[in-house]
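The aim of this short unit is practical: by the end, you should be able to scan a pair of folded records and say something sensible about each. We start with the first protein, listed as its amino acid sequence and then its structure tokens.
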Amino acid sequence: MKRLVILGGGESGVGTALLGKKEGYDVFVSDKGKIKEKYKEVLIHNEIEWEDEAHTEVKILNADLVMKSPGIPDKVELVKKIHKKGITIVSEIEFASKFTKATIVGITGSNGKTTTATLTHHILKQELSVGLAGNIGDSFAKQILQHDYDNYVLEISSFQLDDIIDFKPKIAVITNITPDHLDRYDYKFENYIASKFRIAMNQTNDDYLVYDADDEVITNHLKNHPVQSTLLPFSLTKTIENGAYLDKKNIKITIQNNQIIMPTTNLALEGNHNIKNAMAASTVAHLLKIRKQTIRESLENFQGVEHRLEQVLKINKVQYINDSKATNVNATYYALESMDAPTVWIVGGVDKGNNYEELFPFVNEKVKAIICLGVDNEKLMNTFGNMVDIIIETQFMSEAVKIAYKISEAGDNVLLSPACASFDLFENYEDRGRQFKNAVRNL
């Protein structure tokens, strides 16, 4: 019996444990932190051995295969020891994909991947049996065990791609690549870029790579490191023969001389970045033979993703917007770009080596006040202090929202778009977004 050791007892870890057990592995789950009660119950109920708040090395270094949670960096001592013993380490998507024959759509990118994955799933589910997994919802492994859909849309992070070996999506999507998570890539942007492109490393010319042709990072990398896949670019500015482009207010998608046209006038989601997300999702849907009418209707009735430019409430003619999912500068760029009223901007958190320069034009033009919400706001204060009349710092969401309420006037927006990770004051970006929404509702 092969021994499968799982590091991390979260959603992907427990899903992998269940699938591993069913496939005949001797499974052991080990988490250095505390395993949540709901996951402990699942492990106990399924008689899977586990430990938390410790890693017992003798029980780990005898593994045939290790599945490592994407949150654990390679530089951890235990991971080094596993590598040294020659034990293979894989991510959940690598492990799980071995046990399904489904068509896989893999979506990665620095921003837009959640919206694109959710939108793609929303279109496909109208006509196909399809699961949504990866960084979203129930784990990929658990869905294979419980449903085994014919198709999967997977939102995949660079950390998950770092530990793939044979994983090969039929359709890969790269939404964009901007500097993010560089702390995990020796502060070398090229390492992070290479990590994203692993999504196409096993693809052949029967597979497809859908990508943003307006993104110079992507196009330059493709020039210097060609892939085997059939390329289907999308663009807002160029005319594209094979792929998608914007012609006046219509998205035109051509695949093997078969063209469909989608008007953008009634898209449910606003902003240029969402036209791109719609292009990527529609290209996938067109490849999988979804009817044109279905694609169009789905784009028009899609509700968007929680914590991503989510309109919360209007109070005294001020619109409160939750964009807590903006954990990097590029995401906040899109948020500020889409503001069409004077904006009170709530920003801050754990800075991942951010460069705020690209935000300057928007801050000068649209932002009337800045509220810094973080443990350490010095960089923000120094960067933006001279650009706005009002800049205030706080460490409490409830206080940030009260200040915003005081300084906003009828017709303004109050935007939470932190451009930073959330772990200094919050459990995660969802917790941050929910606290914002609660504070707004309590005004």
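Turning to the second protein, read its sequence before its tokens, just as you did above.
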Amino acid sequence: MAKNLVILGGGESGVGAAILGKEKGMNVFLSDYGTIAGHYRRMLDDEGIEWEQGGHSMDRILAADEVVKSPGIAPTTPVMKAITEKGIPVISEIELAGRYTDAKMVCITGSNGKTTTTLLTYHILKNAGINVGLAGNVGRSMALQVAREKHDVYVIELSSFQLENMYDFRANIAVILNITPDHLDRYDYKMQNYINAKFRILNNLTPQDAFIYWQDDPVITSQLERIRTEAQLYPFAEHFEKGCHAYVDNDSDEASLIIDTPETSLRMPRAELSLNGLHNLYNSMAAALSACLLDIDKQEIRGALGDFEGVEHRLEYTATVNGVRYINDSKATNVNSCWYALESMPADTVLILGGKDKGNDYSEILPLVKEKVKAIICMGKDNSKLLDFFTGMVPEIHDTHSIQEAVATAAAISCEGDTVLLSPCCASFDLFSSYEDRGRQFKEQVRALESK
């Protein structure tokens, strides 16, 4: 008898999982509590897959042999509680896809930098002529690619939400860039629960596999003292430390990036890296280590590290208007991500903060705020927590409730030579549909200033 596969969520990952399930002969039913976008509805119809939106048919869902859950659905929702009570196995789209491919897997997670590192790794492999797929939080559904295409390597960005429902999946190269507080509302406000979710990326690693990580991250190093992995360890650090395989050598005339693995070793002037800032140095190290372990030619790696164009909404230069630089860092949805942004900013920065707070502790950025920020503009439905924390910490603080009001305020209070930085520290869902929507609207408002 064919297996009954239920998919919860009709977005990119859910529709891809539904198509792969049907391809493998399963009885597939997709259910979305909200509204499914038109192009996904058409894809499901074209494949002859049953679907519903605007609610859940619990009798159909609880008849499943297995459920593939969208990462955004919390385990505490009524539908998930009912599924758990019935003992139906719940997996992620990546877990499903991994069953049906023997491609090599480069899997990247971290609280910050994972999208940049994933896209940079993909860029290196693609430029080197590798048949590579891009999946997870970026790119197209991995399940759909496994159903319709054949790749030799997948580069996969994995959130903690995706890792929660991965069990037998195995990475060949696992990367953890850093771990700082994020999504604590999802993890009962317990940091260890979040750490445990991130470390699921090490599940099933063998002595032939590699684990790449930042050697100076206190959370990662502490967790590595408690757990054991059979994988080969490839830590990276800003400067040479015992055991690290990527670092910057400052002893010669020009600072050079050093990558050292059994497969490939390379040296490259740091000034030739296309991405600036300390956080991007670490991202470049992790991507280069992954490429070296896949035996990519060192000249290909150097070239790709030098011509990568970066990620939209991550420290993205937007425009200079009346001598003021505007930077879109809408992807900074947590405090540590904002810290990295501020670390690379000059003095006289006007900082736009705010959105849906996820249990944030803003004290982490306070030293940089005091050093570099001349004014804070709060932008959200409810700015009371930000106003309470930062009032008196900066010369000016403003309370705004829309992107139009925030950008207009920034333009009014900034002077030639200043930088306006949108780096919100918060999720976007109070005023926007996504951080991409927030970033695009910011850029639109800034460009509107140019025409005035």
